[in-house]
Fold:
Amino acid sequence: MTKWGMVIDLEKCTGCQACSTACAMENNRMPGESWQDVLYYQEGTYPNAKLSWLPRPCMHCENPSCVHVCPTKATYKTEDGVVLVDWNKCIGCKYCQIACPYGVRFYTDTKATVEPDVRAVFASADGKTWAPPYQAGDGRDDATKGIGIAPPGVVSKCTFCYHKISTAPAGVADLDEDNPATKEHTPACVRTCAPKARYFGDLNNPESKVNELIAEKKGVRLLDHTGNKPQVYYLTGKSAVIPSGRALKDT
Structure:
């Protein structure tokens, strides 16, 4: 059975935020509701301070705490390893937001981070949601999978572009835009990454590129001590680290 996962090479990542922009456009996100955050932080003190960054999608954990705490079973894990939210079942209790150690979930009724509120500017015909000018009109919306324009009072999150990856050819090891057979099935953040710092494939396939990179370059997972077992791995090489690993590397 396929288990989709992502690898992010921090030595290649330039912090350009192209992934954030591509995700927002692909998935109809509001300003400030970034499913593909790039977090910036400072390490050290002046004059030796260093600016670092960390791209942070949903980790689509193997053992997701968000699934365990959801009282309505709105948050669930698919057979191919992706964590999704069924908006038809979500009651907006935010338990999943509290349980997630990665801070990657958003509540749709949160006050807008910029003015004017784009939801009011581009209100939908029914007045319940909104209709951004870049909204996809190809019928990809699926509330049971948290894909499309979210209704009021629910939680949203990265879906690994499930509307793309779920239609990939059976048995494929990797989803790569350089492969004509898988280009249109590759997540938007992976396709748009200029330095090719992102890889996406089947963690259960020993022949996949993601497995090769994790093994050869010693891929690590963010906050692995929580027991969530993320399916997003980071490659740190000789110079880069994830924030939680800096103290270990300096000892």
